Amino acid sequence: MIAWLEPQDPFPPLERALGAGTDAPGLLAASRDLTPQRLLLAYRQGIFPWYSEGQPVLWWSTDPRMVLVPQAFKISATFRKTLRRVLREPEWEIRVDDDFIAVMHACANTWREGQQGTWITPDIVAAYGGLHRQGLAHSVETWYRGERVGGLYGVAIGRMFYGESMFAHRTDASKIALAALCAFLGKHGVAMIDCQQETDHLASLGARPISRADFVAHVRGATQLPAIVPWDFDKSVLARWTQAAES
């Protein structure tokens, strides 16, 4: 039985999350409230929300946990050519926080094979929008000829980044945003991006599973470090990162 949380209740110990032999491995608790304050408490402890419209807020702490080390992001020969074109051609832009809420809506509304509906509910948009206004959630956006064609968003606490969702309306547009994020975070000494759940797609990008204990130990230290200020980006950051990856 998972815990039901009232607004004032703390999260239970992570060890109480449902185990691998259950129908919902990693499920820890449920609640009605979803506030920026509750989200910050969750992320600092290695917990994240994931639920569908009509469900209570479901809180998870998976074991293992999928993470991406920025320097481990896989760049295929074909994608390397794409990045060179992005760096060379002014029609391509990479923007940070141009319109955070628009990126969330795009992630929610972009069709994905095998997926019906979205977990990015109006309450999720409102709560993460609150974090964004506090400077704790950010979007990285790929633009082509003045149109937003891809992007991602997530939460940044100290020197820890928690990836939430991506979208692409043009081939490789979300991967371009992820490459830009890896370059930016690597520049600022961020050693790990939380990818939450293990999937083949994330593995193909270089993500790998680690134990929950190792993940939480890293989070405890990384979230105590100074925040990245300001969040801004220019192509030179990606150019230097790409060159380093080639050497």
UniProtKB/TrEMBL annotation:
It is found in: Cytoplasm. The keyword Nucleotide-binding does not apply. Keywords: Acyltransferase, Cytoplasm, Transferase. Pfam families: Leu_Phe_trans. It is an enzyme of class 2 (transferase). GO terms for molecular function: transferase activity. Its EC number is 2.3.2.6. It catalyses: L-phenylalanyl-tRNA(Phe) + an N-terminal L-alpha-aminoacyl-[protein] = an N-terminal L-phenylalanyl-L-alpha-aminoacyl-[protein] + tRNA(Phe); N-terminal L-arginyl-[protein] + L-leucyl-tRNA(Leu) = N-terminal L-leucyl-L-arginyl-[protein] + tRNA(Leu) + H(+); N-terminal L-lysyl-[protein] + L-leucyl-tRNA(Leu) = N-terminal L-leucyl-L-lysyl-[protein] + tRNA(Leu) + H(+). HAMAP family: Leu_Phe_trans (MF_00688). Belongs to the L/F-transferase family. Functions in the N-end rule pathway of protein degradation where it conjugates Leu, Phe and, less efficiently, Met from aminoacyl-tRNAs to the N-termini of proteins containing an N-terminal arginine or lysine. This is Leucyl/phenylalanyl-tRNA--protein transferase. The gene is aat.
